[in-house]
């Protein structure tokens, strides 16, 4: 029987980079994935003539060839950069409101500031200050944690010391009085899952900083191309993948990992296990409760499950401009109150005036969909709970009712879209639960309150020897963070082996 | 121990307090031990255990199997969806999709209606061997052939051929039983009058409901037949349905029907997006397909090495998945028509033939992944499951 150094559970972003990085270092690695395809969120599916992108709206951290970002460097170190083609998006984001308000921002600091100042002349200085503050914060963070300043201090990095734990809304309120401008500047909360009054300012600052400095990107062939390329690299390093094969149990003895039992009951020994599944399912479903240290349950108690999403994948029989879609990423904004009202809406089944994001990849990559067609991926955040209590017989009806409400919102901005629909598919929180295996279909791991940031949580480590985590549950969510999480887990294991 | 720098950040102690508080009053996750699977299984069970509760003879070549759940629960479905039965016949484990012919409002059982296919492995087994009380296994309901309220017209033109009538049986009965506000024009083509499945039932429904129109079309009827004859042509469709613009068209039947009817619909000016086709299995005579290499005959046998281990024989004219199943290699499958991607495998070396239009993801094509239910060996192959 083949001996594995490590078993990776789950072929999402974190799982595939952990596998590829370990195999690159010569470890014998087995990757188990419950589904028949790698990617987790980072996947696609076909309907009719269309291949729909599931998750990737804007890839962060890429940077250009001349000014590479951390993700580009990471993909280069994995040896997969040349197998992928990236498409730079010409817009940071745009905003459309049913009253005709429209604004579009370019991924360039000066241009963003200028455009916002033109539109909000009464807030000229506040806009300047907001971006200054965001950039100062980002630079303080980079100097301290990326470039590892050996002697950081409040004097050197005052912004970081002051703002690291402040809610975004507090910062926005202190600088800006126009509520519309505040909303316009904080729509990216949708990429983290908490509205600005609950979101730490650093998230907003870092998102602006990374998308502006390293530009938003998309991938030719979508996120499935990324997943396939990394798996292919893993296989070429001698790695083994088993699709359609979930992990049922992680065997522990004396506080140490012994191996994994697969869904078909086979026990496969290994010293290291990297779990790309959630901490919740890893500790609660995969490990016998008697082996779970009390500390773990205590820590988890303090965390809450992030929202899931309700998405609509639409294939149109025409080009984007015929629909009036001129930007790749558009936030559809109906209500600028981003307070706790937002959370209450996310906890309801039905869609009314909550924030939607509509991505149309064909705007920046005309080859994305078949010639003469285009697709849109429309998402809003919804918690999973209400979906868990619908009787199964009501599921389809509810799904179509919510989708109808979403489609009406889209029609209000782009009249006539319905007449061009050729294919449509709808994903609910239960769909995410089904395809990711995460409790309540959470797509952003544990909620990212300040208390949940990397400073306060165990991240990839476990008190169980040999067990590591690599996923959106072990740190920040998003493509770049989760791909990075896999590399970090691999690094920890490789280092551990080297020091022995 | 050295102090972490973030301990000096403003507000640090408040966060520590918040953490303590949240741990005290937080969430006990131990209830998650079984629940995610339980919720999902109510909608998408990986397998259903079924019992044949009744067998109804429909025509000389067709029977309906009534399937009740072993554990009392059947997941909901949309009229038009299918289940894939998994069976072991003569030592071969395989699966076949069958549309559910009973309506979704009938929650006590699923009917599947099976017509005999000459030489077919599963249809013959189901018709000849399966008895009342037998146990069967299936997938959960699947497929994309259903009325979509988001963009389909409320007036549906259903065009069926032969056993392709089954999803429409479900749709029509649902509309009738539940008083749904939709109009159906059902054009049902068969070679002979004796082949028509559910004839009396459709006749009775259309007599009772103004919004259900049933139009059987017989290709070779007896001389005294007074219904529609020949094939389902554009002229016939136009004559029976009137205005073509406010309707969505649904087709389910053998390949020959699509080849004939779709151009007829296009001639009537119906846009592609209003023509919804159910998949209907792998092509029968693959060697006749455009692009099939002339020098390779259906009977040509190639060697297939699986996962770097055992090697088995596969015929060019037979889908790869079938060759694998015959040798006991199990590949999960659902639609067996190239659509659902369940049977995705990787071709490491060698060539396979894939008919045009199979929806394989772009990057899957790039890395040699194929849908094995519609891939035919043209070479000795090495594959990975
Ligand atoms: C993370 C994620 C991954 C996805 N991956 C795929 C995929 O690999 N292939 C695909 O066809 N669609 C995929 N989708 C599409 C997505 O599932 C649709 O929006 C969905 O079909 C609606 O699913 P549901 O659970 O509500 O199923 P229902 O609405 O109850 O059913 C709709 C139909 O779609 C099928 N379906 C749903 N998701 C997938 C899926 N992932 N793969 C295959 N069939 C699916 C179901 O079996 C069912 O027949 C994915 C969506 C997400 C969010
Ligand atoms: C709708 C949507 C939009 C998004 N938009 C963006 C965006 O624009 N930009 C961005 O950067 N990020 C975006 N994200 C977030 C990003 O996609 C995720 O954070 C990231 O992909 C998560 O990766 P992961 O490593 O946590 O694994 P996941 O994708 O969560 O995958 C986990 C994998 O583990 C497998 N698994 C679980 N349990 C088991 C088991 N017991 N045995 C075997 N396998 C198992 C699952 O099948 C799955 O494949 C989006 C996400 C969604 C859903
Ligand atoms: S079984 Fe559906 S694609 Fe092969």
What features would you describe in this structure?
The complex is a heterodimer of chains A (500) and B (385). Chain A has 500 residues and is of the alpha/beta class. Chain A folds into three domains: 186 residues, FAD/NAD(P)-binding domain; 107 residues; 130 residues. In chain A, the strands form five sheets. A seven-stranded mixed β-sheet of chain A has the order 7-6-15-16-17-14-18. In chain A, α1 packs parallel to α9 and α6 crosses α8. With 385 residues, chain B is of the alpha/beta class. Chain B has three domains: 91 residues, Elongation Factor Tu (Ef-tu), domain 3, CATH 2.40.30; 123 residues, 3-Layer(aba) Sandwich (Rossmann fold), CATH 3.40.50; 92 residues, Roll (Ubiquitin-like (UB roll)), CATH 3.10.20. Chain B has nine helices and 19 strands. In chain B, the strands form four sheets. Chain B has a six-stranded antiparallel β-sheet. In chain B, strands 10-9-8-7-11-12 form a six-stranded parallel β-sheet, sandwiched between helices. Chain B has a five-stranded mixed β-sheet with strand order 14-13-19-15-17. In chain B, α7 links the parallel β11 and β12. The two termini of chain B are 51 Å apart. The model of chain B has no long low-confidence stretch (mean pLDDT 95). Classes of the chains: A alpha/beta (500), B alpha/beta (385). At the A-B interface, β3, α5, α9, α10 and α11 of A face α1, α2 and α9 of B. The structure holds flavin-adenine dinucleotide (FAD) (2 copies) and FE2/S2 (inorganic) cluster.
β content of chain B, as a range? Answer: 25-35%
Main sheet summary of chain B: 6 strands, antiparallel
Helix content of chain B: 10-25%
What structural category characterises the helix and strand content of chain A?
alpha/beta
Oligomer: heterodimer
Give, in order, the helices and strands of chain B: HHEEEEEHEEHEHEEHEHEEEHEEHEEE
> Could you give a short account of the major beta sheet of chain A?
7 strands, mixed
